[in-house]
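Project outcomes to date are best conveyed with an example. Our students and postdoctoral researchers have been running inverse folding experiments weekly, and each run begins with a structure described purely in tokens. The record below, which covers 339 residues, was selected by the lab manager from last quarter's runs and is presented without edits.
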């Protein structure tokens, strides 16, 4: 088929057309390669910038038919989705190859950090340990609480000789019936569980993108608390100022008895100066990769992913719900004092 434009316009005219096929039917049907998935991947790649976005192949097929009048099968939409994710997030295998250089630059940016990569064999990635210098600094009155394991005793005495170490002789079960604070999940959640909830969706990203997500999250938290400290004009932080204002409002209509002994006690974390010092350590961004100067022993050995055998079916993103989670609703536990 031959065609030409009409007077330099967007219209064209077919000059010659041969309707007879000269290739075999097998070549036209089985060996035909179409680039439609590549085009669709470029159109939908912005949908996968946010890891929390749920954009299924069914949604891709519906949007392509609605917006561009293009009908896609499920497998075409799925391939377009995989290519779009690869365009946005990169190749996971290449991300593992960049990991040694990334940790080397991270150690140069944060002197005193503890970074270690464990390999399986000579080139297979097993796990990585990342601890920034700001996270492991010794503080006043810092102590460790653990069981009577000798290895933990020796490790803490070697790494933190200034801190104290206490061991549990017997585990007590404590009752929360008369607790004045919020009793729900009081001892069942810690900082590790909170971070797991923050990076729950980011764990789908490649390893370098996951580390960058954690760095950006820490930078955002420190910037937020620094702005909060700069806007505070009193000696206490915002949380305890609101607590005092609430106490003053409740005591306005009450009789005040003068006392000769005036005792006040304020915890150290409520002081604005201590709050400001806690977030005074800056978290610097990693330099651009084009400016990295890596030694040969870091850049030459290529690291590969561990590559476990993938199980059949879709990967499970959430835990299986038991019968009690589906059938019964979680009841609110109360005691005789708060009914």
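After processing, the design step wrote out the following sequence:
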């Amino acid at each position: 088929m031959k065609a030409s434009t009409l007077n330099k316009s967007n219209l064209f005219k077919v000059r010659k057309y041969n309707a007879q096929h000269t290739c075999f039917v097998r070549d036209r049907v089985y060996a035909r390669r179409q680039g439609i998935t590549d085009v669709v991947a470029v159109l939908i790649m912005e949908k996968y910038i946010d890891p929390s976005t749920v954009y299924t192949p069914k949604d891709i097929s519906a949007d392509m038919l609605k917006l561009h009048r293009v009908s896609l099968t499920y497998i075409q939409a799925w391939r377009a989705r995989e290519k779009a994710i690869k365009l946005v997030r990169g190749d996971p295998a290449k991300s593992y190859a960049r990991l040694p250089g990334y940790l080397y630059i991270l150690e140069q940016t944060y002197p005193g950090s503890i970074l270690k990569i464990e390999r399986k064999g000579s080139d297979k990635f097993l796990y990585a340990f990342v601890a920034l210098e700001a996270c492991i600094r010794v503080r006043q009155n810092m102590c460790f609480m653990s069981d009577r394991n000798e290895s933990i005793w020796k490790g803490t005495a070697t790494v933190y000789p200034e801190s104290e170490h206490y061991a549990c002789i017997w585990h007590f079960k404590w009752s929360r019936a008369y607790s004045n604070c919020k009793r729900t999940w009081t001892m069942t959640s810690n900082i590790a569980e909170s971070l797991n909830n923050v990076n729950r969706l980011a764990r789908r990203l490649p390893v370098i993108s996951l580390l960058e997500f954690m760095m950006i999250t820490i930078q955002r938290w420190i910037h937020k608390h620094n702005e909060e400290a700069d806007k505070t004009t009193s000696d206490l932080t915002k949380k305890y100022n609101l607590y005092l204002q609430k106490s003053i409002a409740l005591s306005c209509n009450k009789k005040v008895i003068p006392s000769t002994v005036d005792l006040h006690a304020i915890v150290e974390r409520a002081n604005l100066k201590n709050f400001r010092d806690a977030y005074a350590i800056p978290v610097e961004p990693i330099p651009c990769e084009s400016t990295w100067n890596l030694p040969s022993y870091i850049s030459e050995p290529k690291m590969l992913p561990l590559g476990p055998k993938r199980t059949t079916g879709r990967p499970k993103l959430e835990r299986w719900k038991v019968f009690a989670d589906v059938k019964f609703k979680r009841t609110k536990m109360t005691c005789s004092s708060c009914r």
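The chain has a mean pLDDT of 78. The chain is about 40% helix and 10% strand. The training component of this project remains on track.
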